[in-house]
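Field reference: sequence -> structure
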Amino acid sequence: MFQKALLSIGSLALAATACAQEPSIERLDPALDALLDPKAPIDKLAEGYDWSEGPVWYPETGELLFSDVPKNVIHAWKSGTSARVFMQPSGYTGVADYGAEPGSNGLAVDNDGNLLFCEHGDRRISRLSKNGGKMTVADRFEGKRFNSPNDIAVHPDGTLFFTDPIYGLPKRENDPTRELDFCGVFRIATDGKVTLLTKEIERPNGVALSADGKTLYVANSHG
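Structure field:
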């Protein structure tokens, strides 16, 4: 169905040194120019967050959504306005303190226009339907809770792919509530079945599909 490719997290990041006056994008393949204008400016849309993650365009509201993971908030931005709080809490709904990274991380929109969340604190993949109801898509593999789902990609056929490192667990690999003894890359079929694709990547993080849906790219933030 598809191939898997492992990338260094650095190859996916924006290249901007501390002394650089203007941010830039590091092009590892000239073919990127067919998708992204080399002269396209990089504009700052909003600021003041602990650290932002998971940007996704949400057609339902016509806004750019992104997570502030430590603050347990999803913000929304629209041209001509300031960013607003879209959802709080976003990834942890408990009442006790839950580590330094409790919120949602990666966000995506499925083929029906529903918003998908990778939730650190609640340790699940969830879905917000267009009518406003939120539900759990998956929170376990073989009866054991996920670590802290990190990033997610949607295949054209509706299949979901996500990464599950330990970054959202309060004590990470030594957390007493940890149930899986590995960090995995998983697939959720359209019927809800969860399949482990690999546990050989030490810290699977960002995930993306090629335009034709045949290759799954997974960033390893530990290598």
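Note: The CA atoms of residues 105 and 144 lie 21 Å apart.
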